[in-house]
């Protein structure tokens, strides 16, 4: 299963574009421009997400990679300092997963999930 698209709001779309296309390696493929509720208008940019995360370290970004046992995630920070996660589902969900998630809604004490199968912090300084 591949990613479909990334949607976000930004004050400086040019900086965000430079980050997502130039650093992340995603290709800008389409824009939808339309009125928005409450007045005004907006632009919805679509990026194809087949990038290679090895470019991220070379651009000075630290990357955290985690195999959560049911999905594989990579995390980094965008130009606004927001932590962003890109996640690919590698397993499936069943009724027990849903029951566990619903039970967690009311829990007031930590009941930790199983440890990740893999966790690696890729530091930008190691990319030189």
UniProtKB/TrEMBL annotation:
InterPro entries: Glyas_Bleomycin-R_OHBP_Dase (IPR029068), Glyas_Fos-R_dOase_dom (IPR004360), VOC_core (IPR037523). Pfam families: Glyoxalase. Coiled coil: none annotated. It comes from Sphingorhabdus arenilitoris. Residues 2-128 form the VOC domain. This is VOC family protein. It comes from the Bacteria.
């Amino acid at each position: 299963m591949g990613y479909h698209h990334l949607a976000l709001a930004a004050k400086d779309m040019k900086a965000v574009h430079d980050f997502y296309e130039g650093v992340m390696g995603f290709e800008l493929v389409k824009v939808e421009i339309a009125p928005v509720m409450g007045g005004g208008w907006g632009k919805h940019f679509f990026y194809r997400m087949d990038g290679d995360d090895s470019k991220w370290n070379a651009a000075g970004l630290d990357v955290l990679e985690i195999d959560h046992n049911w999905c594989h995630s990579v995390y980094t920070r965008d130009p606004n300092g927001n932590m962003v996660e890109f996640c690919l589902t590698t397993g499936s969900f069943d009724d027990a997963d849903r029951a566990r998630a619903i039970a967690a809604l009311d829990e007031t004490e930590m009941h930790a999930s199983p440890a990740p199968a893999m966790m690696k912090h890729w530091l930008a300084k190691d990319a030189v």
